[in-house]
Write a structure and sequence with these properties.
The protein has 82 residues and is mostly helical. 91% of the residues lie in helices and 0% in strands.
Length: 82
Amino acid sequence: MTSKLITSAVSSNGKKTTDELGKSIRKLHADYDRQLKNAKTRGKLRQVFQKHKRDHQALLKKHLKTEEMTIKKLGNILDQEN
């Protein structure tokens, strides 16, 4: 049986992180598209892509860290219930 604490922790954290993630991704891609349009050389295109790739990796790392914190919080709730 799932406790109310777990249900509320998962639903509130999940909603918050996906909303923030969506906004971050939209901004990241808007910047990426703008930079691609302004690129004049093949080297600049590659440079823009590499920056975009690093930005994605940093965003993913941040997102996974947030999810890991949620898991730890849920583990603590389960420990308290038992």
